[in-house]
Amino acid sequence: MILRKAQTDRFTCSAVILSGGLNSRMGGKNKAFLKIGGLTILDRLIHTLSPFFSEILLVTREPGLYSGVKVKVVTDIFEYRASLAGIHAGLCKCKSDFAFIVPCDAPFIDPELVRYVLNQAKSCFDIIAPQIRGRFEPLCAVYSKRCIPLIEEQLEKKDFKIIRFFHKMNLKLLPEEDIEKIDPQMHSFFNVNTPQAFVESQKIAKELRIKG
Question: Which domains, ranges and CATH numbers included, belong to the chain?
Fold first, then answer.
């Protein structure tokens, strides 16, 4: 069992929550502070991640909004509103050699999925990422600091597609069939990024019997 600072074969990992978007599809509402079952999505994420990581960072362009949050708040280094810029900042500013990256609008990440991803990670890999329906899930994945130079190269070109550099790194894919055993409905990858998705999240919360 991996608790607090995740360590296997000299593998150390922090958690990074990305909260730097414009929230345009949510009408400007900050997704991190939307409440599901009486708790904000951000609080749910912190609750899920805390047993596994001694360091949790939140990356944002508006740190003043998170003054009361009980995690370390950091800002982007590249001034682009892109998840790739958030990944870069998290990797540069975390204390560990690796970072487990999640978005601020994912309220249903299963703790057992976090455990599984960490248990699959080793220091020899640069990226450990789920593959669902033939696609990478880059925002529920582990990245090494060795990714930083290639990410910087992309950002300097204003190329914000996260997976563009994956083929240049030592990548470990986590098969869908393994993830389905943990999270059959794939709720861990559900994002509350539109008003419709927020309504759906309330239904999912009831199905999962989530309470505040």
Answer: 6-207 (3.90.550.10)
